[in-house]
Design brief:
- The complex is a heterodimer.
- By secondary structure, chain A is an all-alpha fold.
- Helix content of chain A is 73%, strand content 1%.
- Chain B has 2 domains: 19-145 and 278-374, 3-Layer(aba) Sandwich (Rossmann fold), CATH 3.40.50.2300; 147-275 and 377-393, Response regulator (Rossmann fold, 3-Layer(aba) Sandwich).
- Chain B is 42% helix and 22% strand.
- In chain B, the strands form 3 sheets. A 7-stranded mixed sheet of chain B has the order 2-1-3-4-5-14-13, with helices on both faces. Chain B has a 7-stranded mixed sheet with strand order 7-6-8-9-10-15-16, sandwiched between helices. Chain B has a two-stranded parallel sheet with strand order 11-12.
- In chain B, strand 11 (338-341), helix 14 and strand 12 form a beta-alpha-beta unit.
- In chain B, helix 5 crosses helix 6 (173-188).
- Classes of the chains: A mainly alpha, B alpha/beta.
C-alpha cells in the first residue's frame, strides 16, 4: 500500500504535470525545428506567435461563450481552435511576405534572419499586448477534472489523491494527434516529401523542380497550426498571459536543440526530456521517499535538489551541456 | 545695528503671525507598477484630506494645501528616490504622504527624507524592518507593521485548531517580512511550520511550488502573496492537486477577486486585514469614488489619515517646517484629547488653534505606537458560503 501511495503522489505532482508540459513543449519545439530545418534560421518570434494564436483562441472563445455555444464537458476553446489556426497562418504568411521574403531573396545569412526574427518578435509582442493587454485572461470552461482528488480517494481508498485535469488529458491527446498527422504528412504526401527534400539538400531539390516558395508557404502554414495549438493548449492548462509565452522560448529552444535541430522526432523527445528534468529536479521528494523507504531511512529535509525558483536554470544547463558535448543533439540534427 | 534689529524683529513678527502660505505636500505612490490599480484611490484619499483642510481655511491662519503627486513605481528604489528628491528640491514640499511599498519606502526614507529632514508618513508600508529604520523621528506610518499581523494571524490559527502550517510568500520585502513574522509568532505559540518557500509573481503555473509545499505538509497553507499576482495561482494549484484545501490569507490576499476566483472552493479559509470597528472610512471612500477612482481597494483611509496627521501636526506646532512639527505627530494621533473622526478636520484645526489637545481617530482608528507606527486593529475574515465574512475584530 505504501508503494502505491508513493506512486500516486509521484504521479500527481511529477508524472502527470510533466507529461502535459512535455507535450506542450514538444509541439512548440516541432515548430522551431521545422523552421530551422527548412528556412534555416532560429525563429525567436516563436513564443510570441504562440501568444498571438492563443489570443485569437481566447477572443473567439469569449465570442462563442457570449453566444451561448459550448462543448459540454470540453472547453469551448476547442471550437475556437480552427479560427486560431487560420489567424496564425495568416499572420505568419503576411510576415513572410513582408519581411522574410526580402531577406531570402538576398540570400541573407542565418544570423541576420535570427536578428530579423527578433524584430518580428517585438512587433508581435506589441501587437498582442495592444489587442488583448498584458494581463491574465481566463477562457477555460467545461468540466475541470477528468478525475479529481476526492473522487480518486473515494474510488481507491488510498491516502494520496490523484488529479487529472481535463486540460492535461486534452493536451496529451491533441499532441499525439498532431504528431501523427505531421509525420504522416511529412512521410506520405508529395508536399511533405518535397519539404524534406528541400530541407536535406536545397540545390538538389531546386534542380528536381521543387518550387521553393511553395515549400516555404507550406512550412509556415504547418508552423502556424502547431503554434496556435501549442499556445492554446498551454493557455488552457496554465494561464493565458502574453509575457509567459515569451518566457517559454527558452525551454522550447532547449527542447529543439537537445533533440537535434531540424529533427521532428528529436523535438518531441527533447520536449519530454526538458519537461521531466525541470519537474523532477525541482520536486521535493520527501513525501514519496517517506512512503518508499524503510522507516529508519525516512528523510528529515525536503530532499529537493534545486528550489523551484531555478526551474529555468535547468533548461539553461541542459542547453549548455548539449551544446558543449553533443551540438547536433540526440537525433543528429544540424549543428547550431 | 539698528537695521539688523529691525530686520530680525520683522522676521520674528512674520513667523509669529504664521502668515498664510501655500503649503505643498508630496504624494508619492506607485502610480505605475504592481499596485497601480490601488494608488489612484490612495492618492485620492490624501487629497480629500488636503481639500478639507484648505476649504476650512483654518490651517496656520488660512494656509492652503496643494498636493504634488510623484511616482514611486512600488519596486524601483532608484526611480522612487529621484521622484522624492524632485518633490523636495524643486517643488519644496513640506511633508511627504508616502511611499507605498516597503522597499521603496525604505529607500526614500534613507536617501531623501532623512538627509533633507522632511517628515514622511506612509499609508501602506508594512514591512517590520521599517520599525527599526534610522529615521531621526521623521518617519511614521498609519499602517501597522506586519510583525503585528503575524501575531494576529498566529492567534487566529491557534484558536481555530490548526497545529501545523506551510508558508509560501511572494518574493519581495513585503512577503518575506510577513512570512518571517507569521512563522515566528506561530512557532512561539506552539505551532509547527513545516516549510517556508518563496513564489515568484507572474508565473503561469505554480504546480512545482505547490508540489514542494505538499511534500512538507501541514494542516493549512499560509499564502503571503498578492491577490492579483501569484497568490490565486498558488491556491488554484494546491486545490487542483489536492495538496491543501484550507488557506490562511494575510491582507495582500484579501480582495473581491478572491471570491470571484474560488467561491466556496476555499470554504473555511481564514484571513486578516487591517480594520477597526471604532472608525469609519466610508466618508473618505465616498468622496474618493466621486472623483472617479475605484475606492474599493485597501489603504484609502490610511492615506487620508496620513495626510491629515501631517496637517494637524503643523497646526499643533504652529509651523509647516518638518523639524518643528515632526514631534507633534504622536501628540495629535494619540490620547489624551478630544476624539476626531474622519471629516472633522475643520473642528480639529480649530481645537488645536485654541490650544486644546486632540486624539485623532480618523478613518482607520489611528493609534501610533513605538517607533511611530499604527498599533493595528485587524478584521478576522472567514470564507463562508463562498463569501468573505467578518468573524471578529482583533
Amino acid at each position: 500500500m505504501d508503494f502505491l501511495n508513493g506512486f500516486v503522489a509521484l504521479s500527481n505532482f511529477v508524472l502527470i504535470p510533466a507529461i502535459a508540459y512535455g507535450s506542450q513543449l514538444a509541439l512548440g519545439a516541432l515548430g522551431v525545428t521545422l523552421i530551422y530545418g527548412i528556412l534555416r534560421f532560429s525563429n525567436f518570434a516563436h513564443g510570441d506567435t504562440m501568444a498571438f494564436g492563443s489570443m485569437i483562441a481566447v477572443l473567439v472563445t469569449w465570442w462563442f461563450q457570449g453566444m451561448g455555444l459550448s462543448l459540454g464537458p470540453l472547453p469551448t476553446a476547442l471550437l475556437a481552435l480552427p479560427f486560431a489556426i487560420l489567424g496564425t497562418i495568416a499572420l505568419l504568411l503576411i510576415t513572410d511576405r513582408t519581411v522574410y521574403r526580402f531577406y531570402r531573396a538576398q540570400k541573407a545569412k542565418p544570423v541576420i534572419l535570427v536578428i530579423v526574427s527578433m524584430g518580428v518578435m517585438f512587433i508581435m509582442n506589441g501587437l498582442v499586448r495592444f489587442i488583448i493587454g498584458p494581463n491574465d485572461q481566463k477562457f477555460l470552461d467545461g468540466e475541470r477534472f477528468i478525475i479529481s482528488v476526492r473522487e480518486f480517494k473515494q474510488m481507491t481508498g488510498l491516502r494520496e489523491g490523484l488529479a487529472i485535469k481535463t486540460t492535461q488529458g486534452l493536451t496529451v491527446v491533441v499532441a499525439v494527434i498532431c504528431v501523427i498527422a505531421l509525420f504522416w504528412f511529412l512521410n506520405r504526401t508529395r508536399t511533405g516529401k518535397s519539404m524534406r527534400a528541400y530541407s536535406d539538400n536545397e540545390d538538389l531539390a531546386l534542380l528536381s523542380g521543387i518550387n521553393p516558395e511553395r515549400v516555404v508557404m507550406y512550412t509556415w502554414m504547418i508552423v502556424g497550426a502547431l503554434t496556435a495549438i501549442a499556445g492554446t493548449l498551454y493557455g488552457l492548462d496554465k494561464t493565458f498571459k502574453p509575457f509567459v509565452y515569451f518566457m517559454l522560448l527558452l525551454p522550447i529552444f532547449a527542447s529543439a536543440i537537445v533533440g537535434g535541430l531540424g529533427s521532428p522526432l528529436g523535438a518531441i523527445a527533447g520536449g519530454f526530456i526538458v519537461a521531466f528534468s525541470e519537474v523532477t529536479i525541482t520536486y521535493a521528494w520527501k513525501k514519496v521517499l517517506t512512503y518508499w523507504m524503510p522507516e529508519s531511512l525516512e528523510p528529515d529535509g525536503l530532499v529537493q535538489l534545486l528550489s523551484t525558483d531555478y526551474k529555468f536554470a535547468v533548461s539553461f544547463v541542459i542547453l549548455i551541456v548539449v551544446l558543449l558535448f553533443k551540438p547536433t543533439g540526440i537525433f543528429k540534427g544540424k549543428s547550431v | 545695528m539698528k537695521k539688523l534689529l529691525m530686520a530680525s524683529a520683522a522676521t520674528a513678527l512674520m513667523a509669529g503671525a504664521a502668515s498664510a502660505e501655500d503649503i505643498k505636500l508630496g504624494v508619492i505612490l506607485g502610480f505605475t507598477g504592481p499596485i497601480e490599480s490601488l494608488t489612484p484611490a490612495m492618492a485620492g484619499g490624501a487629497e480629500v484630506a488636503m481639500q478639507e483642510v484648505t476649504e476650512s481655511g483654518k490651517l496656520l491662519g488660512g494656509s492652503t494645501v496643494t498636493p504634488v503627486r510623484a511616482d514611486s513605481t512600488c519596486i524601483d528604489a532608484g526611480a522612487a528616490t529621484a521622484a522624492a528628491e524632485r518633490l523636495i528640491t524643486s517643488e519644496g514640499v513640506k511633508g511627504i504622504m508616502g511611499a507605498d511599498c516597503s522597499g521603496v519606502t525604505g529607500a526614500v526614507l534613507a536617501n531623501v527624507a532623512v538627509p533633507n529632514g522632511v517628515v514622511m508618513i506612509s499609508p501602506s508600508a508594512t514591512s517590520p524592518a521599517l520599525s527599526s529604520a534610522e529615521d531621526n523621528g521623521l518617519f511614521f506610518r498609519t499602517a501597522p507593521s506586519d510583525a503585528r499581523q503575524g501575531q494576529v494571524l498566529a492567534e487566529v490559527l491557534m484558536e481555530r485548531g490548526f497545529k501545523s502550517a506551510a508558508i509560501t510568500y511572494t518574493n519581495n520585502d513585503y512577503g518575506k517580512g510577513l512570512a518571517d513574522s507569521i512563522a515566528a509568532a506561530f512557532e512561539g505559540a506552539g505551532g509547527e511550520i513545516t516549510t517556508v518557500a518563496a513564489h515568484e509573481d507572474g508565473k503561469a503555473d505554480y504546480s512545482a511550488e505547490v508540489g514542494a509545499l505538499a511534500a512538507a505538509g501541514g494542516d493549512i497553507l499560509i499564502v503571503a502573496g498578492y491577490v492579483d499576482q501569484g497568490g490565486p495561482g498558488v491556491i488554484r494549484a494546491a486545490l487542483d492537486t489536492g495538496a491543501f484545501d484550507t488557506f490562511a490569507l494575510p491582507d495582500g490576499m484579501i480582495g473581491s477577486a478572491l471570491e470571484e476566483a474560488f467561491g466556496d472552493e476555499i470554504e473555511g479559509s481564514i484571513g486578516t486585514v487591517p480594520g477597526s470597528e471604532a472608525a469609519d472610512a466610508s466618508m473618505v471612500k465616498e468622496k474618493v469614488a466621486a472623483t472617479g477612482a475605484d475606492a474599493s481597494g485597501p489603504y484609502v483611509g490610511e492615506s487620508y489619515d496620513a495626510a491629515a496627521l501631517i496637517m494637524l501636526a503643523m497646526q499643533a506646532a504652529g509651523s509647516s517646517n518638518s523639524s518643528d512639527y515632526a514631534g507633534k505627530i504622536m501628540d495629535v494621533a494619540n490620547a489624551p484629547g478630544e476624539k476626531i473622526m474622519a471629516g472633522e478636520l475643520d473642528k480639529a484645526l480649530e481645537l488645536l488653534a485654541n490650544g486644546t489637545d486632540i486624539d485623532y481617530v480618523g478613518a482607520t482608528a489611528v493609534e501610533l505606537i513605538g517607533p511611530g507606527e499604527a498599533a493595528g486593529g485587524y478584521r478576522e475574515i472567514v470564507i463562508e458560503g463562498g463569501k468573505m465574512t467578518t468573524a471578529q475584530y482583533r
